[in-house]
Amino acid sequence: MCTIAIYSMKGGVGKTTLAVNLAWSAATLSSRRTLLWDLDQQAAATYLVQTGKKPKRRAEGVYDQEVKPRKLIRKTDIERLDLLAADSSLRDLDHMFFSFGKKKRLLKIIDSVARDYDRVILDCPPGLSETSDQILRAADIVLVPVIPSPLSERAFDTVVDHVQRNHKGRTAILPVFTMVDRRRNLHKAALEREKRWPVIPYASAVEQMAAHRKPVGAFAPNSPAGKAFAKLWRGVERKISKL
Predict the structure, then answer these.
(1) Which of 18, 23, 70, 159 has the most beta carbons within 10 angstroms of its beta carbon?
(2) CB neighbour list of residue 88: distance below 8 Å, 6 or more residues apart
């Protein structure tokens, strides 16, 4: 089992978009038993893929260990893809992790379902906090979405510096350019500087995800965005094979 976190300290950079589309790619393109694990109180990933009855227990119960993750995990309409939903009870998640005093609490919770899945995709809240440190300790690979702009690139540099100082040797960092518009000079310049970074284009298909409540690959696999997510996933799989 490999745990892949989609994380950035900055909001609005496309974390949920990446998480949902990579989870679909893992389950559909690679036929992996996949768990999409929503850690963000905004529950956007949950909204996009949740079907059927919602769990009766609140999500916070998983982290204070009042309820086992398997009790809250639900199947989605996508074959081989399950969901551990988020809700507003996670607004105090950072405080919960801090109060527990257990640096690898999230890792141990993920390990409790490891035998059921080949890939666990974490959709993470923004910020640099105790929750993010729990995520960085638990993840094998961290994908960091970066909009080609100075503030977003600065946020990425901060994450890299934090990992090198506190998690060196444990976590592999993979930056991904998101919301890319090649007509913009700022974006073109960023892509020219970082030619090896994967690129997800700014595309109408991505905006349509909320209307369809489906990943791009489920309704527009041959669109530029659909092809970009598939290509990115193949790169992630190659990265996993080298771990």
Answers:
(1) 23
(2) 41, 43
Calpha distance 32→127 (Å, rounded): 30
Label each residue of 143-172 as H, E or C: EEEECCCHHHHHHHHHHHHHHHHHCCCCCE
pLDDT at res. 168: 77
* Cβ neighbours, 10 Å, residue 210: 12
Check if the beta carbon of residue 129 is closer than 8 Å to that of residue 160.
no
Task: Report the pLDDT value the prediction gives residue 167, as an integer from 0 to 100.
Answer: 87
Which DSSP letter does residue 223 get? S
Domains with residue ranges and CATH for the chain: 2-241 (3.40.50.300)
Average pLDDT (108-137) is 96
Q: What is the pTM of this model?
A: 0.96
Is-contact 17 178, C-beta < 8 A? Answer: yes
Q: Tell me the pLDDT tens digit for each residue of 63-114.
A: 988 899 999 999 999 999 999 999 999 999 999 998 888 899 999 999 999 9
Q: Are 224 and 202 in contact (CB under 8 A)?
A: no
Q: Is 192 helix (H, G, I), strand (E, B) or coil?
A: helix
Identify the H or E element spanning 105.
helix 105-111
